[in-house]
Amino acid sequence: MSQPLFGLIPAGQPVIISPTEAPSPTSFLYAILPTNPNSPPGSAISKPFGHVVVFLLPGVVLPPGTAAAIYLVTPPSPGQTAPNFKFLGGIGPGKESAIFKVGPGAGGTGGGNENVVIGVSVEDAESVASRMATTGTTTPAATSGNGTEGALVPVSAARQQPSTLVLAQRIIKNAFNFLSSYTGSTLGQMEVVPLKAFEEWWKKFESKVRTDPGFLERDDDQ
Protein backbone atom coordinates (compact mmCIF):
# COMPACT_ATOMS: atom_id res chain seq x y z
CA MET A 1 0.00 0.00 0.00
CA SER A 2 1.66 3.22 -1.21
CA GLN A 3 -0.54 5.70 0.63
CA PRO A 4 -2.29 5.66 4.01
CA LEU A 5 -6.06 5.58 3.73
CA PHE A 6 -7.46 5.77 7.26
CA GLY A 7 -6.51 7.55 10.45
CA LEU A 8 -7.12 6.44 14.03
CA ILE A 9 -6.93 8.48 17.22
CA PRO A 10 -7.30 6.54 20.48
CA ALA A 11 -8.49 9.01 23.13
CA GLY A 12 -5.46 10.64 24.70
CA GLN A 13 -2.96 8.97 22.36
CA PRO A 14 -1.15 9.97 19.14
CA VAL A 15 -2.61 9.73 15.65
CA ILE A 16 -2.13 6.40 13.81
CA ILE A 17 -2.25 6.42 10.01
CA SER A 18 -0.23 3.33 9.07
CA PRO A 19 -1.79 -0.14 9.54
CA THR A 20 0.11 -2.78 11.46
CA GLU A 21 -0.95 -5.39 8.91
CA ALA A 22 -2.91 -5.50 5.64
CA PRO A 23 -4.34 -9.04 5.20
CA SER A 24 -5.80 -8.00 1.82
CA PRO A 25 -5.92 -4.89 -0.40
CA THR A 26 -9.22 -3.91 1.24
CA SER A 27 -8.68 -4.90 4.88
CA PHE A 28 -6.35 -3.36 7.44
CA LEU A 29 -5.44 -4.06 11.05
CA TYR A 30 -4.26 -1.38 13.48
CA ALA A 31 -2.67 -2.63 16.70
CA ILE A 32 -2.74 0.05 19.39
CA LEU A 33 0.19 -0.64 21.66
CA PRO A 34 -0.50 -0.68 25.42
CA THR A 35 2.04 2.04 26.18
CA ASN A 36 1.71 5.67 27.09
CA PRO A 37 4.18 7.81 25.09
CA ASN A 38 4.21 10.34 27.96
CA SER A 39 5.36 7.75 30.49
CA PRO A 40 9.02 7.76 31.62
CA PRO A 41 11.35 5.43 29.67
CA GLY A 42 11.02 1.87 30.87
CA SER A 43 7.70 2.53 32.58
CA ALA A 44 5.07 -0.23 32.32
CA ILE A 45 2.23 2.21 32.96
CA SER A 46 -0.14 2.61 30.03
CA LYS A 47 -2.97 5.07 29.55
CA PRO A 48 -6.37 3.38 29.22
CA PHE A 49 -8.81 4.63 26.64
CA GLY A 50 -12.43 3.81 26.00
CA HIS A 51 -12.99 5.40 22.59
CA VAL A 52 -11.19 5.65 19.26
CA VAL A 53 -11.80 8.00 16.34
CA VAL A 54 -11.57 6.47 12.85
CA PHE A 55 -11.57 8.73 9.79
CA LEU A 56 -10.79 8.84 6.09
CA LEU A 57 -7.60 10.77 5.45
CA PRO A 58 -7.92 13.94 3.36
CA GLY A 59 -7.83 13.27 -0.38
CA VAL A 60 -8.87 9.61 -0.05
CA VAL A 61 -12.13 8.33 -1.52
CA LEU A 62 -13.77 4.92 -1.45
CA PRO A 63 -14.84 3.03 -4.59
CA PRO A 64 -18.49 3.63 -5.58
CA GLY A 65 -20.95 1.55 -3.59
CA THR A 66 -18.54 0.80 -0.74
CA ALA A 67 -18.01 1.87 2.85
CA ALA A 68 -15.46 1.06 5.52
CA ALA A 69 -16.64 -1.35 8.21
CA ILE A 70 -14.93 -0.92 11.59
CA TYR A 71 -14.28 -3.91 13.87
CA LEU A 72 -12.83 -4.59 17.29
CA VAL A 73 -10.59 -7.63 16.88
CA THR A 74 -10.16 -9.88 19.92
CA PRO A 75 -8.28 -13.15 20.48
CA PRO A 76 -9.95 -16.46 19.52
CA SER A 77 -12.50 -17.90 21.93
CA PRO A 78 -11.65 -21.23 23.61
CA GLY A 79 -11.68 -23.99 21.02
CA GLN A 80 -11.37 -21.55 18.10
CA THR A 81 -8.38 -20.64 15.97
CA ALA A 82 -9.66 -17.51 14.22
CA PRO A 83 -9.91 -14.17 16.06
CA ASN A 84 -13.27 -12.61 16.83
CA PHE A 85 -14.48 -9.54 14.93
CA LYS A 86 -17.00 -7.32 16.69
CA PHE A 87 -18.71 -4.88 14.33
CA LEU A 88 -18.54 -1.32 15.69
CA GLY A 89 -19.95 0.70 12.80
CA GLY A 90 -18.78 2.25 9.56
CA ILE A 91 -17.55 5.34 7.77
CA GLY A 92 -17.74 6.42 4.15
CA PRO A 93 -19.03 9.15 1.82
CA GLY A 94 -21.25 11.47 3.81
CA LYS A 95 -19.87 10.15 7.11
CA GLU A 96 -16.10 10.38 6.80
CA SER A 97 -15.38 9.93 10.50
CA ALA A 98 -16.87 8.50 13.68
CA ILE A 99 -16.05 7.86 17.32
CA PHE A 100 -16.33 4.23 18.44
CA LYS A 101 -16.48 2.80 21.94
CA VAL A 102 -14.03 -0.06 22.39
CA GLY A 103 -14.73 -0.76 26.05
CA PRO A 104 -13.86 0.71 29.44
CA GLY A 105 -10.17 1.24 29.96
CA ALA A 106 -8.99 -0.55 26.83
CA GLY A 107 -5.24 -0.68 26.44
CA GLY A 108 -4.64 -0.18 30.16
CA THR A 109 -2.79 -2.36 32.62
CA GLY A 110 -5.91 -3.39 34.46
CA GLY A 111 -6.97 -5.87 31.78
CA GLY A 112 -3.55 -7.14 30.79
CA ASN A 113 -0.96 -6.00 28.27
CA GLU A 114 -2.63 -7.18 25.07
CA ASN A 115 -2.80 -4.82 22.13
CA VAL A 116 -6.14 -3.32 21.21
CA VAL A 117 -6.64 -4.21 17.54
CA ILE A 118 -8.99 -2.26 15.26
CA GLY A 119 -9.90 -3.76 11.90
CA VAL A 120 -11.01 -1.66 8.92
CA SER A 121 -12.54 -3.46 5.94
CA VAL A 122 -13.84 -1.92 2.70
CA GLU A 123 -17.14 -3.67 2.03
CA ASP A 124 -20.44 -3.28 0.20
CA ALA A 125 -22.06 -0.05 1.42
CA GLU A 126 -25.54 -1.54 1.68
CA SER A 127 -24.26 -4.37 3.88
CA VAL A 128 -22.43 -1.95 6.15
CA ALA A 129 -25.45 0.38 6.32
CA SER A 130 -27.75 -2.52 7.18
CA ARG A 131 -25.61 -3.54 10.13
CA MET A 132 -25.25 0.06 11.26
CA ALA A 133 -29.02 0.47 11.19
CA THR A 134 -29.37 -2.19 13.88
CA THR A 135 -27.26 -0.04 16.21
CA GLY A 136 -29.07 3.21 15.39
CA THR A 137 -25.87 4.71 13.97
CA THR A 138 -26.06 7.23 11.12
CA THR A 139 -25.06 5.42 7.94
CA PRO A 140 -22.68 6.64 5.25
CA ALA A 141 -23.97 7.30 1.75
CA ALA A 142 -24.25 4.25 -0.48
CA THR A 143 -22.14 5.73 -3.28
CA SER A 144 -19.35 8.25 -3.51
CA GLY A 145 -20.80 10.03 -6.54
CA ASN A 146 -17.39 10.82 -8.02
CA GLY A 147 -17.04 7.99 -10.52
CA THR A 148 -13.85 6.62 -8.98
CA GLU A 149 -13.34 2.99 -9.99
CA GLY A 150 -11.22 0.13 -8.69
CA ALA A 151 -9.11 0.15 -5.56
CA LEU A 152 -8.98 3.00 -3.06
CA VAL A 153 -7.21 5.95 -4.61
CA PRO A 154 -6.51 9.56 -3.66
CA VAL A 155 -8.68 12.13 -5.43
CA SER A 156 -5.59 13.82 -6.86
CA ALA A 157 -3.67 10.67 -7.74
CA ALA A 158 -1.88 12.41 -10.59
CA ARG A 159 0.15 14.68 -8.34
CA GLN A 160 2.70 13.61 -5.79
CA GLN A 161 1.19 13.01 -2.37
CA PRO A 162 2.83 13.81 0.98
CA SER A 163 4.46 10.87 2.72
CA THR A 164 2.90 9.11 5.70
CA LEU A 165 5.33 10.88 8.03
CA VAL A 166 4.53 14.32 6.62
CA LEU A 167 0.76 13.76 6.92
CA ALA A 168 1.16 12.58 10.51
CA GLN A 169 3.31 15.60 11.37
CA ARG A 170 0.74 17.99 9.88
CA ILE A 171 -2.17 16.39 11.75
CA ILE A 172 -0.23 16.51 15.01
CA LYS A 173 0.82 20.11 14.34
CA ASN A 174 -2.79 21.07 13.72
CA ALA A 175 -3.85 19.48 17.00
CA PHE A 176 -0.94 20.99 18.95
CA ASN A 177 -1.60 24.49 17.67
CA PHE A 178 -5.23 24.25 18.79
CA LEU A 179 -4.71 22.47 22.12
CA SER A 180 -1.81 24.67 23.20
CA SER A 181 -4.29 27.51 23.68
CA TYR A 182 -5.84 25.61 26.58
CA THR A 183 -4.34 25.90 30.03
CA GLY A 184 -4.80 22.51 31.62
CA SER A 185 -4.03 21.19 35.06
CA THR A 186 -0.72 19.53 35.80
CA LEU A 187 0.04 15.95 36.77
CA GLY A 188 3.55 15.79 38.12
CA GLN A 189 5.62 17.57 35.47
CA MET A 190 3.09 16.94 32.69
CA GLU A 191 0.47 19.47 31.63
CA VAL A 192 -2.92 17.82 31.15
CA VAL A 193 -5.28 19.02 28.40
CA PRO A 194 -8.97 18.37 29.17
CA LEU A 195 -10.82 15.85 27.00
CA LYS A 196 -13.33 18.58 26.12
CA ALA A 197 -10.53 20.49 24.39
CA PHE A 198 -9.62 17.45 22.31
CA GLU A 199 -13.26 16.94 21.32
CA GLU A 200 -13.51 20.61 20.28
CA TRP A 201 -10.34 20.28 18.18
CA TRP A 202 -11.71 17.17 16.49
CA LYS A 203 -14.98 18.94 15.55
CA LYS A 204 -13.05 21.84 14.02
CA PHE A 205 -10.57 19.51 12.30
CA GLU A 206 -13.37 17.38 10.80
CA SER A 207 -15.19 20.49 9.62
CA LYS A 208 -12.06 21.74 7.89
CA VAL A 209 -11.52 18.34 6.22
CA ARG A 210 -15.07 18.49 4.88
CA THR A 211 -14.77 22.03 3.50
CA ASP A 212 -11.17 21.75 2.29
CA PRO A 213 -10.16 18.06 1.90
CA GLY A 214 -6.73 18.87 0.51
CA PHE A 215 -5.54 21.30 3.17
CA LEU A 216 -3.15 18.77 4.75
CA GLU A 217 -1.55 18.10 1.38
CA ARG A 218 -0.45 21.72 1.03
CA ASP A 219 2.77 22.84 2.62
CA ASP A 220 1.31 25.86 4.37
CA ASP A 221 0.70 26.96 7.94
CA GLN A 222 -1.69 24.56 9.66
UniProtKB/TrEMBL annotation:
Domain of life the protein comes from: Eukaryota
Boundaries of every Hikeshi-like C-terminal domain copy: 163-218
Cited InterPro entries: Hikeshi-like_C, Hikeshi-like_N, OPI10
Domain Hikeshi-like N-terminal: 9-136
Pfam families given in the database record: Hikeshi-like_C (PF21057), Hikeshi-like_N (PF05603)
Family membership noted in the UniProt record: Belongs to the OPI10 family.
Record-given protein name: Hikeshi-like domain-containing protein
Organism in which the protein naturally occurs: Neurospora intermedia
